[in-house]
Specification:
173 residues, alpha+beta, 7-stranded mixed beta sheet, 45% strand
Amino acid sequence: MKITKVETVYDGFYKLRKLTVQDGDEQLTRERFEPGRAVAALVYDTNKQQYVFVRQFRVGAEGEVDEIPAGMLDKKGEAPEDALRREIEEELGYADVHHLEHIVDLFPSPGGSAEQIGVYYAEVSQQTSAGGGVEDENENISLVRMSWEEMAAHPWRDAKTLVAVQWKILQGR
């Protein structure tokens, strides 16, 4: 299979492209959702010995979802680690990430989406603000703290969070 043509169908907050795909003698049309490149981290507060998650409304789930903090790479050429530190400060209120470990780069739904997420593990120790997101980005985020046992038993519905939590469980405490 080979992509022979790409057209922009919608260019708003996200992009939607129409692709023509050559499959032998057949030409197929497919749509691809393009939200961009994101980063996310399983965050552990070493002082409180708790994992810190966010709870926020997600339009795709039509309700609140518990998940690891995440965000888009906002600027061209922005390093994923810099974007992640910004998101941890905005969403959780921790200005200093003192350990950051890359887990995996993944495609959460490659059948129709070009979204890529870099998933990390981060350690923090001193919360310097309340977090909760950025007001002008219409974020309404609540922090959710969990012990190891609570995290391991929680019914995660978000794919990036499930990947990060399972990675940590495999690593052990």
